[in-house]
């Protein structure tokens, strides 16, 4: 299922706080990812050996979290139309970082949880729109993984 243009617009209508402060929200997303899926921390060499205490207010974690949300913001603003945005992301994550595609679903779930928790007025329709947009993101990333011949299934 692909998200509709209206769903992308809906998500963008409440995405402002995340766009304005990607490092802070990105830090929360990555910390939550590491808490809920501890094995995921091993996929980030810079953070793999750090205890939870050293991840809090960590400038490198904030920077990486900011990159995650900025890339997602680019995807949202483009309505998922510019395939180069995700193609480049898929290439680096498949070839360089060797990230299994299941982690795109996992981090999408974490992003959804953080947004529901942190953004006021995030109603049922907005939640559905975000789920559909994140599913489109996951699907497109998976398609690029397939094109690259990255077999992690």
TrEMBL record:
This is Myoglobin. GO terms for molecular function: heme binding; metal ion binding; oxidoreductase activity; oxygen binding; oxygen carrier activity. Monomeric heme protein which primary function is to store oxygen and facilitate its diffusion within muscle tissues. Reversibly binds oxygen through a pentacoordinated heme iron and enables its timely and efficient release as needed during periods of heightened demand. Depending on the oxidative conditions of tissues and cells, and in addition to its ability to bind oxygen, it also has a nitrite reductase activity whereby it regulates the production of bioactive nitric oxide. The keyword Ribosomal protein does not apply. The lineage of its organism: Eukaryota, Metazoa, Chordata, Craniata, Vertebrata. It is found in: Cytoplasm, Sarcoplasm. The keyword Transport applies. Coiled coil: none annotated. InterPro entries: Globin, Globin-like_sf, Myoglobin. Keywords: Cytoplasm, Heme, Iron, Metal-binding, Muscle protein, Oxidoreductase, Oxygen transport, Transport. Residues 2-146 form the Globin domain. It catalyses: Fe(III)-heme b-[protein] + nitric oxide + H2O = Fe(II)-heme b-[protein] + nitrite + 2 H(+); H2O2 + AH2 = A + 2 H2O. Belongs to the globin family. Monomeric. GO terms for cellular component: extracellular exosome; sarcoplasm.
């Amino acid at each position: 299922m692909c998200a509709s243009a209206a769903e992308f617009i809906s998500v963008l209508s409440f995405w402002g706080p995340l766009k304005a402060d990607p490092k802070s929200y990105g830090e929360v997303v990555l910390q939550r990812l590491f808490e809920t899926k501890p094995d995921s921390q091993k996929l980030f060499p810079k953070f793999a050996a750090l205890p939870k205490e050293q991840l809090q207010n960590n400038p490198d974690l904030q920077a990486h979290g900011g990159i995650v949300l900025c890339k997602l913001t680019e995807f949202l603003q483009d309505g998922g139309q510019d395939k180069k945005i995700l193609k480049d992301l898929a290439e680096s994550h498949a070839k360089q970082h060797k990230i299994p595609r299941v982690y795109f679903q996992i981090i999408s779930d974490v992003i959804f949880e953080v947004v529901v928790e942190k953004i006021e007025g995030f109603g049922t329709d907005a939640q559905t729109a975000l789920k559909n947009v994140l599913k489109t993101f996951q699907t497109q990333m998976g398609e690029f993984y397939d094109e690259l011949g990255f077999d992690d299934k």
